[in-house]
């Protein structure tokens, strides 16, 4: 039997008591991190989409992804804004506190970028003749040459920040580095830095670069401390970003609430995609209760209008955020399997049929379809070849076939030389 034939369900447990507000609406406590990719969740609460479905979102701003993970696991949150790999890691038993987690809804695509310190970028430019308009891949090659020169002089290797080891940021940063010929485990030092602290850490010289979600890349560039060298769209446009995470026993016990939540989030995502709503969305996101960043930066980020640095270099990235279009909310199991392939590539997970099934089971298109109907779901297979379509290529030309996952991982020239040891929460 093909290892992608079955997607396992994880269910069971006892229902939690319902919490109602003064108007009788079901209250869902939701943890989130202050990032623009929480827009759909915040808009659903702020602009009446959940209220229309008889729900109230009690949004709690958290300080780290590990906190979000733990508070969901311990029942302090009903649902959570999560990194797309977090449910997969949980189903594989990875990390310091793995607890089964699923997602029936993605919060969209896009939003990440890679920023290097102005010091490091100037050295790349001076040492390699790098153009101000260089591509993401050209930037990676220039960094590789710069690191080789640093090694030859016996200098310390660059320290680069990611937000969490089981994160799109970690895998995208590693993918970009490796595409340029840089070994992320030997040629640089990766550390964990919470998103709101990345710009400060860069300015203080504690790190030399980072991969993080908006608006923190442009905060660094506008402060004159960073240069944006790659965006998520440069690495793989369809890469899932953030998702709504929930415990499978909670979802099993509250099927109507899950469906109503998905309907509300779908409506909010459609609203967030419309440019005419971006002024209102940016104003809401800038509120201290949410992102607490300058509204003008958030507004430009929503439009994909980037200040790459403080020297006046600009870039416009079409569809930098896709909150709904192109089935951006669909929890596609082949996306989960690609994330699993990167966990294998970098020594976080072992290759096995059972692990592949567990990874795919974290993404639940059945719950999405039950809420929104097949007419609002893509017509192609849930498990499909990724990166083979024009406009959706991986930056290094690789194509991901989930049915040949071990061969895909083995096909990379740069991958972990270390045997699988543990699912550490350390970078």
Automatic annotation (TrEMBL):
GTP-binding recorded as keyword: no
GO CC annotations, alphabetized: endomembrane system
Keyword ATP-binding set for record: yes
Localization terms from the record: Endomembrane system
Pfam family of the protein (one): NMT1_2
SUPFAM superfamilies registered for this protein in UniProt: Periplasmic binding protein-like II
Keywords: ATP-binding, Cell inner membrane, Cell membrane, Membrane, Nucleotide-binding, Transport
Top-rank lineage group of the source organism: Bacteria
GO MF term list: ATP binding
Full protein name: NitT/TauT family transport system ATP-binding protein
Species for this entry: Rhizobium pisi
Highest classification ranks of the organism: Bacteria, Pseudomonadati, Pseudomonadota, Alphaproteobacteria, Hyphomicrobiales
